[in-house]
Design a protein that fits this description.
mainly beta, 5-stranded antiparallel sheet, 15 strands, elongated
Length: 176
């Protein structure tokens, strides 16, 4: 018992961590605490003009719907030139997606394409019939993946697969 106590004490000392983690990425809203420990929502970082830029147009299964991913504009520290993230697409495993009964057209899953990118912060939706544009989110959010109806004609077990909805995974909190 006497040998176990020092080991537990040493493990306890080394398990303590420093919560002063350097902030990385970008912060959308700043929250501070007053002397009493109450959280006060400070100046909205959005009001400081988060510069964004759309990339390209994505075709969906619905011919009147077009999507444009929007990225935060970054600046190269050495040259000062602006750049944005770029689109990257999740692809399927070839052995599951292409045979006589299943044609996924190299999509993430039948009927869905999946898009992700560095500092992907919003999505612009354009209705080609009404000529109206709207954003998926009121404020910039950090988007992990956008799943949208594939433009291609995908099949699963010789049946056509048509998706009529969007799915978006976003980060809702900063992790430490």
């Amino acid at each position: 018992m006497k040998k176990i106590t020092p080991i537990i004490l040493i493990l306890t000392l080394f398990s303590c961590s420093n919560n002063n983690v350097e902030k990385k990425g970008f912060q959308v809203r700043e929250i501070v605490e007053n002397e009493g420990g109450e959280k006060i929502v400070g100046l909205t970082i959005d009001s400081l003009k988060l510069e964004t830029q759309p990339r390209n147009v994505l075709l969906t299964k619905n011919p009147s719907h077009r999507l444009s991913p929007i990225y935060k504009v970054n600046y190269d520290k050495s040259t000062g030139k602006p750049f944005t993230g770029s689109n990257a697409f999740h692809k399927n495993y070839w052995e599951y997606g292409e045979n006589d009964e299943n044609n996924w057209n190299n999509n993430f899953m039948p009927g869905f394409e999946a898009l992700y990118g560095y500092n992907f912060v919003n999505i612009s939706h354009f209705n080609n019939k009404t000529k109206e544009e709207n954003l998926f989110f009121e404020r910039p959010v950090l988007i992990k993946t956008l799943y949208y109806p594939a433009f291609s004609n995908d099949t699963l077990n010789n049946l056509s697969v048509n998706r009529e909805f969007y799915m978006i995974s976003v980060y809702d909190e900063d992790t430490k």
